[in-house]
C-alpha cells in the first residue's frame, strides 16, 4: 500500500506522512490519513479518493 502511494504521490510524501509514523508505532488506524491523499493541483479529486478507498479496502479486508 505504501508502495502504491509512493508511486503515485512520491517517496518524499510517504516519508513525511503521518501514515508511516503511525505504522511504525504499530497503529493500523490509518484510514483518515490514507484517504486524505486524493488531491490534484490542490483540489479534491473524486477518482483519486475512490482509488484510495479501493487500496485501503484491499489491504484490510480480505
Describe this structure in words.
With 62 residues, this protein is mainly alpha-helical. It contains five helices and two strands, in the order H-H-H-H-E-E-H. The protein has helices at residues 2-9, 11-16, 18-25, 31-35, 46-60, and strands at residues 39-40, 43-44. A two-stranded antiparallel sheet has the order 1-2. A hairpin with a 2-residue loop joins strand 1 (39-40) and strand 2. The longest helix has 15 residues, at 46-60. The radius of gyration is 11 Å and the shape is globular. 8% of the residues are buried. The model has no long low-confidence stretch (mean pLDDT 87).
What's the SSE blueprint?
Layout: H1 2-9, H2 11-16, H3 18-25, H4 31-35, E1 39-40, E2 43-44, H5 46-60
Antiparallel strand pairs: 1-2
- Percent of residues in β-strands: 5-15%
What is Rg?
11 Å
Helix tally equals 5
Helix vs. strand class: mainly alpha
* Secondary structure tally: strands: 2
Low-confidence stretches: none
Helix content: 55-70%
Element string (H = helix, E = strand): HHHHEEH
Strand order of the largest sheet: 1-2
Q: Biggest sheet: strands, sense, closure? A: 2 strands, antiparallel
Mean pLDDT: 87
What is the end-to-end distance? 14 Å
Overall 3D geometry? globular
